[in-house]
Design brief:
Number of strands: 12
Order of helices and strands: EHEEEEHEHEHEEEEHE
Number of helices: 5
Largest sheet: 6 strands, parallel
Radius of gyration: 21 Å
Helix content: 10-25%
CATH architecture of the largest domain: 3-Layer(aba) Sandwich
Strand order of the largest sheet: 5-2-6-7-1-8
Shape: globular
Distance between the termini: 44 Å
CATH topology of the largest domain: Rossmann fold
Length: 229
């Protein structure tokens, strides 16, 4: 019997990740009549209460709240075809990877949705560590909601999640995980994302290939470099 397949659904907040996960689950459960299990981290209860998950677009459906991925194994029963995990960035990296790989080896299809970067632009390794094992990756980005001087919306594809203070200012420091919605986070594009001060964005002069080969000693190209660590 072949191993299961892993589908990753990644992107920014408000991009429709949970909605996409729900649509896939609904197709299997309702239309193809396959039994599925849907899990979400227990700390995510703050979004809508126990055993009900609500997407940012308003869709509600029943889920099982778990404190750690290991609980999934104990809750699998009967003829389960697929396992769905939402908000997976909240789980421990090694724990999530071990359980997902175990499910795949035991012939379960697995669907994982989550943020691939935090409010500082750094990767959520619990998500990115699953990349090598994915059969399919679906990216769901929202649009940048930065307001230009003329009060028009930026509208570019957002690839970052900017954390905001209660006053609406940018917050670049704090705990990596803080549950919130529009009151605390805003999707941002590359142009409008504000990096923390200790993650420097600098301009460097890089010798061109000709200069390296000794043909043109003063031929350089300027590029911007992000210093993460």
């Amino acid at each position: 019997m072949p191993v299961g397949k892993l589908t990753l659904i990644l992107g920014t907040m408000f991009g429709g990740k949970t909605e996409e996960l729900y649509n896939l689950a609904n197709t299997l459960n309702i239309h193809i009549k396959k039994k599925i299990l849907f899990f979400v981290p227990d700390k995510n209860n703050q979004r809508d209460g126990e055993n009900i998950l609500k997407s940012h677009r308003g869709t509600r459906f029943c889920v099982r709240n778990i404190k750690c991925p290991e609980e999934i194994i104990a809750l699998i029963e009967g003829n389960v075809h697929a396992v769905f995990i939402d908000e997976a960035q909240f789980f421990d990296e090694k724990s999530l990877a071990n359980i997902v790989l175990g499910l795949l080896l035991n012939h379960y299809n697995v669907y994982v949705a989550g943020l691939d970067s935090d409010f500082q632009g750094k990767p959520f390794t619990s998500i990115t560590s699953l990349f090598p094992y994915a059969h399919k990756v679906i990216r769901k980005n929202s649009i940048c909601t930065f307001l230009n001087d003329d009060e028009t919306l930026c509208g570019n594809d957002a690839v970052f999640n900017q954390r905001l203070t209660l006053e609406g200012n940018v917050a670049t420091y704090g705990k990596q995980i803080e549950v919130g919605a529009e009151e605390k986070y805003a999707p941002r594009c590359w142009e409008h994302f504000v990096w923390p001060e200790d993650i420097a964005v600098t301009t460097a002069k890089i010798p061109s290939c000709e200069s390296i080969n000794g043909k043109t000693a003063k031929d350089y190209k300027e590029i911007q470099i992000v210093h993460y660590y």
